[in-house]
Amino acid sequence: MPAKKTTIDKPVFAVKRSRAGAGLGLFAVTDIPKGAFIIEYTGEKIANAEADRRGGRYLFNINTKWTIDGKGHHNTARYINHSCRPNCESRVAKGMVTIHSIKNIKSGEELSYDYGTEYFKEYIKPLGCRCDKCHARRIA
Ligand SMILES: C[S@@+](CC[C@H](N)C(=O)[O-])C[C@H]1O[C@@H](n2cnc3c(N)ncnc32)[C@H](O)[C@@H]1O
Ligand SMILES: [Zn+2]
């Protein structure tokens, strides 16, 4: 008889309301070590010209030819907010976008990565960045 499986596959994140003005965010529900794979950013792979035509906040540019349109709700990675002092990073390899921790993350902390200059200038800067670093700078 096969051994009874006792491992519980706990999710490592949950979608919750983020800082005021930043909408929903993705939060760790367990401690996550530095260097861990967190999640893939999934969606329809479209040509950059089509991405320009569609526009939107959930477009992740992969390279000079392709973009992932991650607007679908199945793409849980779409809830990860931007930070100027992030605890995760995005990596692009073989046409896939994956998110990895770059710090030890405590349970309850919000996951974040740097969206990059272009996205920041277009969507974050006009209304003010709500990340911890910018928030601390504002109240200092
Ligand atoms: C990929 S979505 C992230 C999830 C989003 N908060 C939601 O509720 O669906 C990116 C959008 O979230 C908001 N956002 C993400 N990071 C932010 C930040 N640091 N400051 C302000 N708004 C942020 C902006 O509206 C941005 O265009
Ligand atoms: Zn910021």
UniProtKB/TrEMBL annotation:
Compartments (UniProt record): Chromosome
SMART domains in the record: SET (SM00317)
Superkingdom of the source species: Bacteria
One Gene Ontology CC term in the entry: chromosome
InterPro entries, per database record: SET2_Histone-Lys_MeTrsfase, SET_dom, SET_dom_sf
Keywords tagged on the record: Chromosome, Methyltransferase, S-adenosyl-L-methionine, Transferase
Main location: cytoplasm
GO molecular function: methyltransferase activity
A Pfam family that the UniProt record links to this protein: SET
A Gene Ontology BP annotation from the UniProt entry: methylation
Segments forming domain SET: 11-116
Name the record gives this protein: SET domain-containing protein
